[in-house]
């Protein structure tokens, strides 16, 4: 069966749904293909910094999400090696783009808000893309696992770290850092009583963090470099939970209670991967009428909390660039060629705007994670004496970014 859709987006994650909603706000319809049967909520929650809130406001869902998530006011960083008192810093500061704003947003709530604002039928679930081919110079044929073929003028890959579209564009698979993350969240029956602070612990080759989403929910993470013996943890939440507790035995009882109260179906483990920065520098972010965004473009480690934030930025910039291309008119006799050329230039504009921002975020996240989790006298000094003191400022600085509004230039 063959269908036609002007704009096809692969992946109903943060980047894909933000791009689709951005286009919808600009009066342009798109089709989102999602391989799973429902929205993917892997990861449970994400730290949402100022740059992300500007993007959420641009698509009109920032206010609703603010009502459901606490404002995080301070960050507390503790070295489990030095024995020095915790370093506490305020997250309230004004940058060149406005006041800082940090909240821990539940991924499920974010995706549901994006989905709710889209027209019915925009997302097509159980639609796995298996191949892409040229129908002509101006159109792509998208082949699905169920035999459906969709003909499209614009094809956008927001299909994550194992992206089919990024592979088609020539990107290599993301590199493995040698580290894994275990993530979880705990829903307390009543008010959990934790202050609106991001609490982090570094040292002994591990990194952990605890941050409230709202009055009843606390999100946590634990990262480490596994040995061959740790392979038995994979797909075994009970063993993951016991492993984290064994590594966090020196933490305050109140913090350990968050892990102890986490239900087994609220714990997952995943390898930490990233795109080599030089691949983003020299690679094809777009080619013709095809491009990638989100984790398909810039998979990064979670050490600065910018993966989801960058995906939101991508969605706004990409929607704006596509809308500008489609709303321009020309007097070319060959309309198909004229539209294709405008789309091609729009996607190139997106790539140009996002390339260096992506490189900056990937590189910073990798280096921060490397220093935080490395061992040895030099690394301990860098982490405990330097990074710990400047981390809050670094996180605020990198989030002091504005991807712009959804307004287009004729």
**Shape type:** globular
Beta strands, count: 21
Stretches with pLDDT under 50, minimum 5 residues: none
Proportion of residues in extended strands = 15-25%
Structure, explained:
There is one protein chain. The chain has about 400 residues and is an alpha/beta fold. About 35% of the residues lie in helices and about 25% in strands. The protein contains 11 helices and 21 strands. It has helices spanning about 15-25, 50-60, 60-70, 105-115, 165-170, 235-245, 255-260, 275-280, 305-325, 335-375, 375-400; strands spanning about 1-5, 5-10, 30-35, 45-50, 75-80, 85-90, 95, 100, 105, 125, 130-135, 140-145, 150, 155, 175-185, 195-205, 205-210, 215-225, 265-275, 285, 290. It has a 7-stranded mixed sheet with strand order 6-5-16-17-18-15-19, sandwiched between helices. Strands 10-3-2-14-21-20 form a 6-stranded mixed sheet. It has a 4-stranded mixed sheet with strand order 1-13-12-11. The longest helix has about 40 residues, at about 335-375. It is globular and about 70 Å long.
């Amino acid at each position: 069966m063959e269908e036609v859709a002007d704009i096809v987006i692969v992946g109903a994650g943060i980047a894909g749904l933000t791009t689709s909603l951005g286009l919808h706000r600009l009066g342009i319809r798109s089709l989102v293909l999602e391989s799973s049967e429902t929205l993917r909520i892997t990861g449970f929650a994400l730290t949402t910094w100022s740059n992300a809130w500007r993007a959420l406001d641009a698509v009109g869902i920032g206010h609703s999400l603010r009502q459901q998530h606490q404002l995080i006011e301070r960050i507390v960083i503790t070295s489990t090696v030095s024995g020095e008192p915790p370093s506490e810093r305020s997250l309230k500061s004004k940058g060149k783009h406005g006041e800082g704003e940090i909240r821990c947003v539940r991924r499920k709530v974010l995706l549901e808000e994006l989905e709710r604002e889209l027209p019915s039928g925009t997302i097509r679930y159980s639609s796995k893309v298996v191949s892409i081919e040229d129908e002509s110079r101006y159109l792509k044929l998208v082949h699905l696992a169920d035999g459906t073929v969709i003909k499209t003028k614009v094809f956008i890959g927001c299909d994550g770290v194992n992206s089919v579209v990024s592979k088609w564009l020539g990107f290599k698979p993301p590199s493995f850092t040698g580290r894994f993350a275990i993530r979880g969240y705990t829903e307390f029956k009543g008010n959990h009583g934790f202050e609106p602070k991001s609490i982090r612990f570094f040292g002994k080759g591990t990194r952990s963090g605890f941050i409230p989403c709202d009055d009843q929910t606390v999100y946590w993470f634990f990262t480490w470099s596994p040995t061959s013996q740790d392979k038995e943890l994979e797909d075994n939440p009970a063993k993951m939970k016991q492993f984290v507790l064994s590594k966090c035995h020196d933490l305050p009882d109140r913090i350990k209670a968050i892990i102890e109260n986490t239900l087994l179906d609220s714990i997952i483990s995943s390898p930490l991967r990233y795109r080599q920065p030089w691949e983003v520098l020299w690679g094809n972010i777009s080619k013709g009428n095809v491009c990638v965004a989100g984790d398909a473009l810039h998979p990064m480690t979670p050490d600065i909390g910018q993966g989801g934030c960058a995906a939101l930025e991508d969605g706004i910039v990409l929607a704006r660039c596509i809308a500008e291309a489609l709303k321009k008119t020309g007097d070319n006799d060959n309309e198909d060629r004229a539209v294709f050329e405008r789309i091609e230039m729009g996607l190139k504009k997106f790539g140009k705007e996002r390339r260096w921002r992506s490189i900056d975020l990937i590189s910073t996240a990798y280096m921060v994670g490397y220093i935080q989790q490395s061992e040895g006298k030099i690394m301990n000094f860098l982490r405990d004496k330097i990074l710990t003191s400047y981390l809050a400022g670094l996180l605020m600085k990198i989030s002091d970014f504005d991807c712009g509004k959804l307004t287009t230039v004729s």
